[in-house]
Amino acid sequence: MAKITLSNLRHSYLPKPGKPADYALKKIDLDWQDGGAYALLGPSGCGKSTLLNIISGLLTPSEGRILFDDRDVTGLPPDQRNIAQVFQFPVIYDTMTVYDNLAFPLRNRGVAEAHVDTRVREIAEMLEVTEMLKTRASHLSPDNKQKISMGRGLVRDDVNVVMFDEPLTVIDPHLKWKLRSKLKELHQQVRATMIYVTHDQTEALTFADQVVVMQDGEIVQIGTPVELFERPQHTFVGHFIGSPGMNVLDASEDGGTVRFEGQPIAIEGKVTGQGGATQIGIRPEFVSLGDAGLEARVRKVSDVGRHSVVEAMVGDTSVKAIIEGAAPEQGAAVHLAFRADQTRLYRDGWLATEIAS
Ligand code: ADP
Ligand code: MG
After folding, report:
1. Closest residue (by CA) to atom 20 of ligand 1?
2. Can you tell me the distance from the alpha carbon of 205 to that of 38, in angstroms, rounded to the nearest whole number?
3. Which atom of ligand 1 lies closest to the CA of 43?
4. Residue 38: left if φ>0, alpha if ψ -120 to 50, beta else—which one?
């Protein structure tokens, strides 16, 4: 096991990169502690797989260094990095049995058969595939193939890191939630550093203690699920996490007074910086309907089970509120209130408020 440090990492797939857009990874500095459960979360194309492949050694970065426990491994091939990687699609040997597939990474490294047997059975128990051990892999369903693929990633006890690249893509929706919680459990049992890559916020937030949010080849925020939800450092994180995401509303700011649709709005603390495109960020969970507040008209009400999402227009701007209990009718005139301690100001996308500590 090891601490992983990425230092000044940049990567371009082009032979002669110039402008920032030529880089799939723009500038990455990151420390991953030994034994942690991490997620790398971001939309398709933001550079997640590129970053994983650089850590595992499948790719050499254009610039920067990768350190394991302060040892520079940037130039080392994958087989000298002690990393297990689970890909989006199952990587298994169809002609072998499940047992032999799980045993392969160990036998390949000359592990004694007695220990191979112990590990294979342990991992099979954890993944609930013991009764399939004698089955030939070609007979398995896609779900089970991917489970075995994960097992191959988890079976070695000498790995520094286990990395999963969108491993639940091929898994049936009804099995997804089960495997998701299984992986969390596995991390607690195995205690290796795990990096889980996904574009799905639910997967990231259930698995990880720390989530790294990426956009366009850059890290926008690193935090616990609660931190990402409560104080997004960037409007992108606000949008991307939550369902529906944060309301991001065009606003003006002058001498610390923030206005939205002409009305003064109380925000969480002191405004920092100046200029730039200013926006207010408030999550739908913290917008309430009452007798006082911003005048609005209800455009749409969606019932999503335990609560309703009310979309109301304040002037020309749509604001979403999550409401428990009775929701207003479409077209109704309502008043919206923003909870001040949950109302943030952003400048050019970045958080621009300070709270007294
Ligand atoms: P993600 O895994 O987040 O979906 P990737 O790391 O696969 O993103 O891709 C990041 C960017 O790099 C994308 O713009 C993608 O088109 C580009 N890219 C990925 N792999 C290659 C490749 N082998 N050659 C050229 N461009 C690539
Ligand atoms: Mg990818």
Report:
1. 50
2. 10
3. 3
4. beta
Question: Which of 28, 50, 56, 165 has most ligand 1 atoms within 8 Å of its beta carbon, as the pocket-test mutant?
Answer: 50
The answer to whether position 191 is within a domain reads yes
> Which ligand 1 atom sits closest to the C-alpha of 44?
4
* Structural domain harbouring 79: 4-230
pLDDT at 30 (0 to 100): 95
Same domain, 224 and 300: no
Residue 1 has pLDDT above 60, yes or no: no
**Number of domains present in the structure of the chain:** 2
Mutate to test the pocket of ligand 1, among 22, 25, 49, 198 (most ligand atoms within 8 A of CB): 49
What does pTM read for this prediction?
Answer: 0.91
Using an 8 Å Cβ cutoff, are 56 and 85 in contact? yes
Residue 140 CB neighbours (<10 A): 20
**What separation in Å is there between the alpha carbon of 346 and the centre of ligand 2?**
29
Instruction: With respect to residue 238, please indicate whether it lies within any of the assigned structural domains.
Output: no
Whole-angstrom distance, CA of residue 332 vs CA of residue 330? 6
Q: Ligand 1, atom 7: nearest CA belongs to which residue?
A: 49
The tens digit of pLDDT for each residue in 34-60 reads 899 999 999 999 999 999 999 999 999
Q: Count the residues in the chain.
A: 357
202 and 271: one domain? no
User: Could you tell me the distance, in angstroms and rounded to a whole number, from the CA of residue 50 to the centre of ligand 1?
Assistant: 6
Ligand 1: lining residues by beta carbon, under 6 Å? 13, 24, 42, 44-50
